[in-house]
Amino acid sequence: MGVSWLCSKLKYDTDEPEDGMVDKQQLYELYKKQCDKHSVKSLSITCIAKIVCKLFPDIKFSRIRTGGKSGSNNRKNVFKGISFCGLSHDNIEFITVENLQLQLDESCFLSSRTHESANILMPTNISANGNMLMKEICLNFSNMKWQLNVRGKSIDLSNLGISDKFDRSVSNFKTILRIVKSLDLCVGCDKDEKTPVPNHILCEHVTLSENGQQTTIKKLRSLHCLGVISWFSIKDVCSRCRHNLQSFISNPKENENTVNLDAVCDKDSERFLAVRPL
After folding, report:
1. Quick one: 249 and 174 in the same domain?
2. Are 170 and 129 contained in the same domain?
3. What is the pLDDT of residue 275?
4. CA distances from 207 to 114, 223, 245 (A)
5. Average pLDDT of 256-267?
6. Whether residue 211 has pLDDT greater than 70
7. Which of 129, 147, 126 is nearest to 138 (CA)?
8. Is position 278 within any domain?
9. 136 pLDDT band (50/70/90 cuts)?
């Protein structure tokens, strides 16, 4: 709920510097009130700041003086480049299965639809074994819910603080698109070439495309991969893969007491296999 609310109440605003500014503390207090209203456990103010920067990557985080004497008590943290937004109930636009195509931007496209549902595909810059990975948004207009699929599996939105409900409004639909676009996919762990991998573990050649350049790396993924990484992860691998594949992850810092038998010479072998005289 928290992430959906944050995204729906904020917008990019760079026309006027004074308008395009949101107080970090004020935003957090509004967020906490919303969580208390729905009996939802709130995140810390640091976590909320990270999520806002993830949803709006072009904004700047600044500390400005509020006037009076110099000192930390007269400064506040603000997000520059965004502002609060709200719509009058008289001006709300709604989406239908028929006009859904008109609300899509260049980052996604409509793949299929029926009289009460629609599927939207959002391409990514990641390919696995030559196949481009897609984020699939499934809208159900009958029960007013949506879900996200990655690699054919449904993502648990509640673990990410995202509501699976939508109200058919254009603004809410745009919120869903922004959230999905902000989520990073799990690409797996780097494979250690020295360690044999069991057949039940997924081994893929992952190609990352960025700034016109492509990089292909051999990766490992758990069968129970979460599909996406959390808002606060600093790596491109989900917690499930990192935990389940710990023994197969490539580790550049080898233990000093560990001997790499593939790299030893004859003198080393003689020293290791030497037998002490009786």
Report:
1. no
2. yes
3. 47
4. 34, 20, 20
5. 45
6. yes
7. 147
8. no
9. very high
**Do 95 and 167 belong to one domain?**
yes
Q: What is the distance, to the nearest Å, from the Cα of residue 60 to the centroid of all Cα atoms in its chain?
A: 19
Residue 263 lies in a domain: yes
Average predicted confidence (pLDDT) for the chain: 80
- Domain end, chosen from 52, 67, 86, is at 86
Domain termination residue (choose one: 55, 86, 117) = 86
What's the pTM value of the predicted model, to 2 decimals? Answer: 0.71
Same domain, 113 and 168: yes
- List Cα–Cα distances, 157 to 39, 56, 154, 221, 273, in angstroms: 18, 19, 9, 20, 56
Q: Please tell me whether residues 97 and 154 are part of one structural domain.
A: yes
- The larger pLDDT score, comparing residue 150 to residue 66, is at 150
Q: Are residues 34 and 96 in the same domain?
A: no
The rounded distance, in Å, linking the Cα atoms of 56 and 73 is 27
Q: Name the β-bridge partners of 217.
A: 206
Q: How confident is the model at residue 108 (pLDDT cuts 50, 70, 90)?
A: very high
pLDDT level of residue 2 (50, 70, 90 thresholds): low
Asked if residue 209 belongs to a domain, the reply is: yes
Domain count, the chain: 3
Per-residue pLDDT at 67: 57
When pLDDT is averaged across residues 91-118 and rounded to a whole number, the result is 88
Look up the domain containing 97 and give its range. Answer: 90-182
Q: Which CATH number covers residue 44?
A: 1.10.10.10
